[in-house]
Amino acid sequence: MADIRYSAPSTIDEAVRLFAASGGAKILAGGTDLLVQMRSGAVSPGHIIDVKRIAEMTSIAEQNGSFRIGAAASAAVIGEHAALRKVWPGVVEAINLIGSKQVQGRASAGGNLCNASPAADSVPAMVAAGATVTLQGPGGRRELPVEQLASGPGRTTLAPGEIAVAITLPARPKGSGDAYLRLIPRTEMDIAVVGCGVSLTIANGACTTARVSLGAVAPTVLLVDGAAKALIGSKLDEAALEAAAAACRAVCKPIDDKRGTIAYRTKIAGVLLKRATAIAAERARSH
Amino acid sequence: MAKVVLTYSFARQFAGGKTEHEVSGQSIRHLVRALDERFPGIGDRLNEDMAVAIDGVIHQNAFLEKIAPDSEVCFIPALQGG
Amino acid sequence: MSKLHVTTTINGEPTEFLCDARETMLDVLRDRLGLTGTKEGCGSGDCGACSITVDGRLVCACLMFGAEAEGSQIGTIEGLAEGEKLHPLQKRFIELAALQCGICTPGFLVAAKALLDRNKNPTETEVRYWLAGNLCRCTGYDKIIRAVMDVAAELRGATR
Amino acid sequence: MSSQHYKWIGTRPNRPDGADKVTGRARFGADFNMPGQLVGKVLRSPHAHARIKSIDTSKAEALHGVKAVVTAKDFPEQPNQIVPAGEMQANLRDVTRNVMAREKALYDGHAVAAVAATTSEIASEALALIKVDYEVLPHVIDVDDAMKDGAPILHDHLRTDGLTPPSDKPTNIAKRLEFVKGDIAAGLAKADVVIEREYKTAAVHQGYIEPHATLASATEDGQVQVWSTTQGHFQVRGFCSRLLNIETSQIRVTATEIGGGFGGKTVVYLEPVAIRLSQKSGKPVKMVMERSEVFRASGPTSGGTLRVKIGATRDGRIVAADTTIALQSGAFPGSPVGPACMCSFACYDIDNIKVIGFDVVSNRPKVAAYRAPGAPIAAWAVESTIDLVAEALRMDPIDLRLKNAARKGTKTHYGPTFNTIGMVETLEAAKNSPHYKTPVKPGHARGVAAGFWFNVGADSSAAAHVGEDGTVTVISGNPDIGGSRASLALMAAETLGVDYDKVRPVIADTSSIGFNFVTGGSRVTFATGLAVVNAVRDMIENLKGRAAKIWEVEPDAVIWENGYAKPASSNVGKFEPLSLAQLAAQAGKTGGPINGHAQLNAQGAGPGFGVHIVDLSVDRDTGIVTVERYTAAQDVGTAIHPSYVEGQLQGGVAQGVGWALNEEYIYDAKGRLQNAGFLDYRMPVASDLPMIETVLVEVPNPSHPYGVRGVGEVPIVPPMAAIGNAIARATEVRMLDLPMSPPRLSAALDAMAPKRAAE
């Protein structure tokens, strides 16, 4: 059996150095995907780099209305952050849908993002929110819109040695709201069959900005511009919602698998768009 | 004479399709012996994988059980439980 | 293969152990420390039978490396009772027949305690969702939920 | 007789193993270890159907730390005939092939080799070094496909049993069964309404939370010890004895605490392999399945295809009932099609019935028993069709069932005439339940279904010992899977007239008590309970004899009352009653230890009936079903420990809800199981269910001194149809295939939408 190392660096620089130095290394944040993948034999890293001892990566900071969430901060910690929950209820809800309460104690938004599953619950919400991810690698730091991180199921655009450090949610104007809904066959413990994130701003009864995102209907989480366009400028009336739902259905390129059929996923994308928009709008009106 | 009831498939296989038979015998052992004499080969099969209901009460492994002259004895597929 | 030396606290007791980097906390508890009260039902975080607490947070021991326990406070089912006195949850689970086969019971108890430590007055829905990560195939959950609700009320009464 | 007469029976004391099980102290299958033990692991086929041309284990054997490797060559060939093994009828040819594939791998996950090594990592590495040369063969998964001409044949020697004339054609249909009562054509001719539908059910797994686990230690002198999580350690002994040619007396099996079974732990998978590895390595070998192995290679229950035709007259009398049931048995014959056929219409008194059953092999794991094996599958189809009849006749579904309910004197289609049974009482209890009397809430819909199970008795042994302080140990041999220790102790305390906490129930290993049939079929409280009662009665005779010796009177001059020996009358003489403790203190002087024994083959388990009511809502946009309220009424005999009786009903319902809504085995085009884990094999979680109300109808069973009737099987029979019937009433869509998962229900709703719009 190949030897395996474990490191728990206390700074990002050290983590990046270790990560870049060893070819078969894996970053350990919550580990809720990594350990399952290791057990099934899907991955067998030679070096495990635990980033949870790095303060910057596990804390949440608010600055001028925007929030910077350490990539390894657990879902439970994020869920308990009252200010964040108030401004980005949809994002927090989405992060708090990742797995059970047990998984919540470990799983992180950064891990959820970098695992690059098209069905990741937090990602559509973050995409709709216009979140960016801060990456640090041997070449320094860069920012990337979260929707650009995954390039396919389990594949990312991360450069060799690059680590996701934090996720930033922008400040929002008054009258903004977001929501994330997913469809699962049970009430808990399932992978999303479809996920939909909506973030919008309402002024004078009309939708002024909107971002819509879908999960589990394509190889990566999708930002659905067509749906956003259908909502922007409307009073979120039934016609606009139906147009946005149609746009959502139109971009779906799902697969038939054990979790759902192409027809079902496509249909549900539209259903969730309408429902998530209603929740986001309600929140925007009371924001 | 006890009334012996075979399942329809058993009756077709061994007894020319007739499901009900009058058989004399004091116990299940005797009934099965008498049936086997009448329908050669049926005895082993009845002992092998069939349960017996004597007057509505199911016996998983009947052999010595006494049979009254007016008893109804049904051979049914063996049961298992969860 | 060189092993990692880990210093941690388990159920209040300072504990040291050696483990491989790939070893899960569940393997460490069960195979190295003999704490077999924590059960393995799936090894993938889907059943909750291996629920433990790490610095007060509920986690699946199968989704954590043993090495990560360094410097942590770990709580397992073996630490729930105080001496010979059962925790009210343990007592009520027995009294209300909230277990049949008992394999999921340690996980449920650890998870339920983590809930009551945070939420003194959970609704039935909150209890059900909190415990959704713990599978039970015997009871239909009914008596488990009742036991947890009962103990929550009992503990509220005691602190009033 | 009602429970009021009893001091202990019907009470709810703490279970004797409670403290062990809430503290983590109880030792389950994977919690046993021996010094120097090896880790055993199984190599499993990745193919659904493949000829095994060769297996090269040399590299694995050469790996440092590997102590033994076994393949089918290490297990003796077995005859192709049904023989008893631990009182279970089994074809050992098939059993040994299921334990270790021989000529062919017959399903994804089929064991093909196993290793024992010093560590888990080395064992895994060794598995990867075993080279199996497979010739992949065409496979068949679906039961209908497997029955077709030209289907890939699993077993060249298999011929359909039950055909007249016999056929000599190779086939996947292992057996054809037929049950006929009356004249189906004449019955249908009388019917005003005839409903016919075809249904399908998916294979579902028992889903016990504890994976199979065993520890085996074989010594050089031929003795074997096994620790196993099993529903029947005597069956483990019996199977291992047969499969490995070891005398039963040389094998000692200890049942560990068992983390659920529901029928799935009544057969052997790992035990013979672990023994063989231990024999070859000379070391104890521990084997624990991964969850994925549990799903891929241990018994689910059958899926099947069923056609049901029911005819009724306008006044609600069912005059004809016809069904054909084809069940998957997995890779080897032996589906529960027999009980499925028999249970199908057992709830009803119908003059004309025809039932045909097929037992069909396909490239899936061999099915194992699962709670009332076969009955839930038949009930899904029959109870759905009966609901359609109720709809067609505009009758209340309980009233329709009452009108046709089986009762004393009803002749069943499989032969026997019912004695005293509780179907009518159960229907009436359901009808009078708070749930049924409450109007259906807006947005909800209500469904009803009934179910039947025979219950079984069979072999049990028990012993009772008085300790020197007068407390009592009761020894039996059935693993306690859901509180049976408490029930046995209650019956012993009641019989003996002592307090419950003076009775300690113990479950002995196969060498320490006589034979006990499996914990299953809802037999333990009934049959082993009877053995315990008889053992205690035997002990009481002994105690009376001791008192007689002390008093210098004849034994029949002594009676036993409330835990004391007393003179039978004042004529006997004036003696102070003697307590158990007093008698125990003088045991040595009066003839030695005081024990009691009993062994029996219990008969008259008595059938059980259940009627379930469910209220649910359907999200029409998504096809998601929410169970809002649920009530299970059941004829339970005397409820010895009512909490555990309720628990059986509630647990059965939860499993039924899973079977109805989400659980299924999903295969890909290559015949590989796609959802071998709890993530995608979706069993209900706590937030999926409401509280589950129970109505215990206590009709005592005349064949048991305390009126016990098995209760664990029946509650899984009605839920699927109850839910399907409620969905039909909520949506006007009649689902015919299980599970009624959101994608399927949504598709059915969408298919209906144009029709609705047109109306």
* Annotated CATH architecture of the largest domain in chain D: 2-Layer Sandwich
Task: Report how far the terminal alpha carbons of chain A are from each other.
Answer: 56 Å
> Which chains make the largest contact?
C-D, 58 and 57 residues
**How many individual helices of chain A?**
12
Order of helices and strands of chain A: EHEHEHEEHHHHHHEEEEEEEEEHHH
Oligomer: heterotetramer
CATH structural class of the largest domain in chain A = Alpha Beta
- Top CATH class of the largest domain in chain D: Alpha Beta
Tally of strands of chain A:
14
* Major sheet: arrangement of strands of chain A: 4-5-10-6-7
Placed side by side, the strands forming the largest sheet of chain D appear as 3-7-1-15-12-13-14
Shape of chain A: globular
Write down the overall geometry of chain D: globular
The helix content of chain A, as a percent range, equals 25-40%
The poorly predicted ranges of chain A are none
Features:
heterotetramer, A: alpha+beta, Uridine Diphospho-n-acetylenolpyruvylglucosamine Reductase, domain 3, four-stranded antiparallel β-sheet, 12 helices, C: 160 residues, alpha+beta, DNA polymerase, domain 1, 2 domains, five-stranded mixed β-sheet, 5 helices, globular
Topology at a glance:
The complex is a heterotetramer of chains A (287), B (82), C (160) and D (759).
Chain B: E1 2-5, H1 8-14, E2 20-23, H2 28-38, H3 42-49, E3 50-54, E4 57-59, E5 72-77
Parallel strand pairs in B: 1-5
Antiparallel strand pairs in B: 1-2, 3-4, 3-5
Chain C: E1 4-10, E2 13-19, H1 25-32, E3 51-54, E4 57-60, E5 73-75, H2 88-95, H3 105-118, H4 124-130, H5 142-159
Chain D: H1 18-23, E1 38-44, E2 50-56, H2 58-62, E3 66-70, E4 82-85, E5 88-91, H3 92-99, E6 104-105, E7 111-117, H4 120-129, E8 131-136, H5 143-147, E9 173-181, H6 184-190, E10 193-201, E11 204-205, E12 213-218, E13 224-228, H7 233-244, E14 251-255, H8 271-281, E15 285-288, H9 291-297, E16 300-301, E17 304-312, E18 318-330, H10 337-344, E19 353-361, H11 375-393, H12 397-404, H13 423-431, H14 434-437, E20 445-453, E21 458-466, E22 472-476, H15 484-496, E23 503-507, H16 524-551, E24 558-561, E25 564-567, E26 578-579, H17 580-585, H18 587-590, E27 595-602, E28 608-619, E29 624-635, H19 642-661, E30 692-697, H20 719-731, H21 742-758
Parallel strand pairs in D: 1-15, 13-14, 18-19, 22-23, 29-30
Antiparallel strand pairs in D: 1-7, 2-6, 2-8, 3-7, 4-5, 9-19, 10-17, 11-16, 12-13, 12-15, 17-18, 20-28, 21-22, 21-27, 24-25, 25-26, 28-29
Helix pairs in contact in D: 7-8, 10-11, 11-20, 15-16, 19-20
